[in-house]
Specification:
The complex is a heterodimer of chains A (about 120) and B (about 110).
Chain A (H helix, E strand, L loop, with lengths): L3 E4 L2 E4 L5 E7 L5 E7 L5 E9 L2 E4 L6 E3 L9 E3 L8 E8 L10 E2 L3 E5 L1
Parallel strand pairs in A: 2-11
Antiparallel strand pairs in A: 1-3, 3-8, 4-5, 4-9, 5-6, 7-8, 9-10, 9-11
Chain B lengths: L3 E2 L4 E5 L4 E7 L6 E7 L6 E7 L4 E4 L2 E6 L4 E6 L8 E9 L4 E4 L3 E6 L1
Classes of the chains: A mainly beta (about 120), B mainly beta (about 110).
């Protein structure tokens, strides 16, 4: 059982480049989300999805795009990378049979550096 | 305005003693509270949670206490073990909105 899988684990981009961070989960979770963690700070919610075809913005959505075409996958797109987007990105999922509780299963993270 | 605060960036305790990690929140819409543990180069893992209708939840060596009137929760680890050394994040969820807000984390070091 793989859980939440993120790729790539490391990426270096130049300012202005675009890329997609991949996230897949095999637990049949309806809820998926993306967080970023900057040094010395907590996790901040970027975007989240309560099911296929439904996405919504979190606390820091600017510069990021998401889509949810399947239950399993929730890719995060950086449209035009900026140095301020240098961070560690975590994808997380949650079951929601009785509604969202906040008990999240996290991937191992993707470390992104924008030069 | 930070809605979830962990005021102690670090905590050091001796093996076998109690570790107490604290967390304060401001948003009254939060109705579910969780603690996560994170090792370097790994994602956070869920540790223990508590609903806003309770004031205590226990799971083995870990106990979470919630004081709603003070908007304060704490995590007690007894007895502390060296393997407990990690960063601990407090999180508060607004379950109706489907969102969780995290604190900045407390680095716990348990010395043998």
């Amino acid at each position: 059982n793989a859980g939440v899988t993120q790729t790539p684990k490391f990426q270096v981009l130049k300012t202005g480049q675009s890329m997609t961070l991949q996230c897949a989960q095999d637990m049949n979770h309806e809820y998926m989300s993306w967080y970023r963690q900057d040094p010395g700070m907590g996790l901040r919610l970027i975007h989240y999805s309560v099911g296929a075809g439904i996405t919504d913005q979190g606390e820091v959505p600017n510069g990021y795009n998401v889509s949810r075409s399947t239950t399993e996958d929730f890719p995060l797109r950086l449209l035009s990378a900026a140095p301020s987007q240098t961070s560690v990105y975590f994808c997380a999922s949650s079951y929601s049979l009785r509604g969202y509780s906040g008990e999240l299963f996290f991937g191992e993270g993707s470390r992104l550096t924008v030069l | 305005d930070q809605q979830v605060k962990q005021n102690s960036p670090s905590l050091s305790v001796q093996e076998g003693r109690i570790s107490i990690l604290n967390c304060d929140y401001t948003n009254s819409m939060f109705d579910y509270f969780l603690w996560y543990k994170k090792y370097p180069a790994e994602g956070p893992t869920f540790l223990i949670s508590i609903s806003s209708i309770k004031d205590k939840n226990e799971d083995g060596r870990f106990t979470v206490f919630l004081n709603k009137s003070a908007k304060h929760l704490s995590l007690h680890i007894v007895p502390s073990q060296p393997g407990d050394s990690a960063v601990y994040f407090c999180a508060a969820s607004d379950t109706n909105a489907g969102k969780s807000t995290f604190g900045d984390g407390t680095t716990l070091t348990v010395k043998p």
